[in-house]
Amino acid sequence: MSTSSSTSGGTADLASPRLPQEVSNGVTDTFLQENNDRLPVIIARYQDQAVGQLISLSVGGPNAKPIVFYTVPDAASDTTVYVPGAELRALANGIHLLFYTVTTYQEMKSKGAFLRLKLGNGA
């Protein structure tokens, strides 16, 4: 398997993950309570998207391990991946890099987006 990454000079042109407008100032406990204790992350439809491809969502530096894995169910539209509140609470409050990797026969990494956390744990 080869890797193509926008963060390391590869050829992938995956868009940054999109977050709900309601979390532009930070993901809060209230937001999670109102959304079934999960954060929806929109992955824009990308070139050559196909059913069965694996999306791995990561939070942290460019070598962070994925916290959510999701199989693409539809080749024709955007994909929503849900991050469990427990995964977010395990992180310190502050700004974190959020990105995803698409795996088929070739791995591609998206551009990053920043995620601000303001959760009750105050870690």
What does this 3D model show about the protein?
The structure is a single chain. The protein is mostly beta strands and 123 residues long. It has two helices and nine strands, in the order ββαββββαβββ. It has one domain (2-111): Immunoglobulin-like, CATH 2.60.40. The model is unreliable at 1-11 (pLDDT under 50).
What level of helicity do the residues show?
under 10%
User: Treating each run of at least 4 consecutive H or I residues as one helix, how many helices?
Assistant: 2
Average pLDDT: 85
Q: Tell how many strands the DSSP assignment holds.
A: 9
Largest sheet: 7 strands, mixed
Uncertain stretches of 5 or more adjacent residues: 1-11
Shape descriptor reads globular
List strands and helices in order, with pairings.
Elements: E1 2-5, E2 27-28, H1 29-34, E3 38-43, E4 54-59, E5 66-71, E6 79-84, H2 85-89, E7 94-103, E8 106-109, E9 113-118
Parallel strand pairs: 1-8, 2-9
Antiparallel strand pairs: 3-6, 4-5, 4-7, 7-8, 7-9
Task: Summarize, please.
Helices cover 9% and strands 41% of the residues. The protein contains 2 helices and 9 strands; from the N terminus they run E-E-H-E-E-E-E-H-E-E-E. Residues 1-11 have low confidence and may be disordered.
